[in-house]
Each structure stands twice: as C-alpha cells, then as structure tokens.
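Quick one:
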Amino acid sequence: RREPLALINLKKKNEETGEEELASRLDHCKAKATRHIFLIRHSQYHLDGRADKDRTLTPLGREQAELTGRRLASLGLKFDQIIHSSMTRATETTEIISKHLPGVKKISTDLLREGAPIEPDPPVSHWKPEAVQYYEDGARIEAAFRNFIHRADAKQEEDSYEIFVCHANVIRYIVCRALQFPPEGWLRLSLNNGSITHLVIRPNGRVALRTLGDTGFMPPDKITRT
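Output:
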C-alpha cells in the first residue's frame, strides 16, 4: 500500500483536468529518498539463564558489541535512530553500540523480540517449537516487517540510515520477505553474533542486500553463532 497510486483517492479526480492532475498528485506521493537499514544481531549471551533478564551478554558478547559499535562508527554515516528488541541481550548490545554513536536516539520495541516466524522448509530436527508459536510469533514478526521495512515517506528529503538491533530469526525472516524470497527458507541463512546485515530500499520500492551477517571486522577468535 505504498505505491503512489495506492495513496491517491481516484474518486476525487477532476474530470476536466484528470490526467494532468493525476500526474501531479502521483508526483507528490512519490518517495525521493533511499533508506539504509542495518540489521544487527545481538552479541553472545548466557544461554543458561532461566528468564530473559538472566540471559545477559557474556564477556565475549560485550567485546563483540564493542567491535560492532566501532565498525558502525567507522562507516562515517549519520545514523538517524537505533530501534532495538526489548529483550535483555538486544538491549545490552544496543547500550554498548550506542556509546560509539553519541546522540543517536534509541527506541525499544516488543515487535522485534525473538520468536518463530514461520514453519521452516525444509524442517530441521534440532528445533521444533509448538505449532501455536508460529501463529503467535509469526504475526508479530510479520507486523515488525510491515512496520519497519518499507520505502521512505514521500516527505523524506534526504537518505536515512537506521540501525535495528534484534535477533537471528527476525533478521533472517525480514531478509527473505524484503527480497521477495520464499519466507519459509529463512532457516537456511546463518548469522554470527554481532553481525551486520545491510538492506537498501530505493524510492521505487526495490530492495538490495549489500551485506548479510558481516563479521569481517572481528578477529576470528571473537566470532560466534550461539
């Protein structure tokens, strides 16, 4: 529903100057800017924590977040905001990254929390959540995709650079949806902790994937996937 034609009420079209007026209104609704979306997977965390509050970052995870923050800062981009999952590991990763990006506002959201987006195809034997989880988490993660991954608003004049700190399942699903690949294939992708995935959304709605799960800025002994 973000195509310019979808934003116009055609019933109000002036009959006499129809085509000319329509072209003008379409022009007014067209996006002008490009959105750069940086999807960051949280750093390594304590898997043995019972509740979310106990699943804090490990010492290595904190190092990974520092490296990711430095990498993002080294790009020399003017980041507009950091939107992060409200889960502890994503929040802690965000706090460390944001030290390297002073002045960039942080926004927490439940939409980006980890979950089971859609039943994977092919299935895997080591991970089989309850079927109800796909309905509960899937609707939320799809809502996150629709809410955050879209072309720029027509009022946006300059290109934007946004960071989203969340989880592997969420990022993998978003990448498949954004590229119009079968979303059931999300589990075929693998992401390291603290990795950077870079999506570009052009004014015409076309999407390009510049990097997927990049951790080339980390020393080999600091790279994990847990």
